[in-house]
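Appendix B: complex inputs.
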Amino acid sequence: MTEPQRSGCPINLTLEVVGDKWSLLIIRDMMFGNHRHFRELLTKSEEGISSNILADRLKTLLDHGIVSWADDPSHKQKGIYSLTEQGIELLPVLAQMSGWGFKYLDVTEELGIRAKLLSEGGPKMWAEFMDELRETHLGAKRKRKAGPSVGERLQAAYQKVMARKGKS
Amino acid sequence: MTEPQRSGCPINLTLEVVGDKWSLLIIRDMMFGNHRHFRELLTKSEEGISSNILADRLKTLLDHGIVSWADDPSHKQKGIYSLTEQGIELLPVLAQMSGWGFKYLDVTEELGIRAKLLSEGGPKMWAEFMDELRETHLGAKRKRKAGPSVGERLQAAYQKVMARKGKS
DNA sequence: GCAAACCACTCTTGTTATGCAACTGGTTGT
DNA sequence: ACAACCAGTTGCATAACAAGAGTGGTTTGC
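Resulting structure:
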């Protein structure tokens, strides 16, 4: 748990916090899948993280103030993980990575559709989605916009592709 | 060198390519420091990468088409590494990470100034900088804009901070 | 023409991180 | 009361990473 800090460069420091193969995937699942419990994050992710790695990453994300933790009042054992403002502001990073991956890598259609929409929507859509995340994760009040939310639109698009491919 | 590919999600795939602690730093040095030779990348970086890791990462970046390699005509032993279009398009990812790190982490003033300017400049400045990179790395012609380039402005700001701090 | 410095790496040898599977101690539902 | 669920922890094997020395060659300076 010693972090010797290699340099004061912002890119380097960011990599030291979330520059591993799992942290950003956990944050992705919290953002786009609304996974908030340990068990959800463990079993519902595409990639199959193992429980010790998940526990370790959640701990460091907590330490860095990217996620927060609270008791679930409905279940004595359950805790709820939430994104903090700092965590929510990682969305543009994820969006850019997602757009780049969609353009250059071998992305499957059903998992790429969100990337496509988010990339086409641009910073304006990202800001709107971040506002929605502030509502669900921070309990912030939000001025309701007309029509379905960004989260709903992304989810609907995903379902549509899955339906067309006959996968449920 | 086997990559079992955990899922077809664009974010995951991007992380599998550049989601380690060094790849993006190498790309950063190529972009912002114009480091193009092995030795430059090895010795001029803030963080002190070791030579075997650098060799390994350059190899995988070559494999993925993010950088390219060519003989240096002026020196039989030297090769020149260049960013490809695909590599240049990682700039927005770096810019977002840089902006986030600048806002939330303990960035030093001289290394943060570029992040600040790039963040304030927004996507428009990034596009301009990417055009400059296409010129230096791909040999693309570019319609000259008036005034100093983005690269020059970033460098000048860095020098100014260093001078004020009496560090050379 | 020759030594010293430079060049792009590779090799060897640890250390650290990752990943799987089993297990713990507790809670909830029926 | 008992099975299923919950949030992790522990032990151990394997893979990735890292520091430093070494390799075979080239260029520079004198």
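Residues 37-39, 42, 51-52, 54-55, 75-79 of chain A lie near DNA strand D (CB under 10 Å from a C1').
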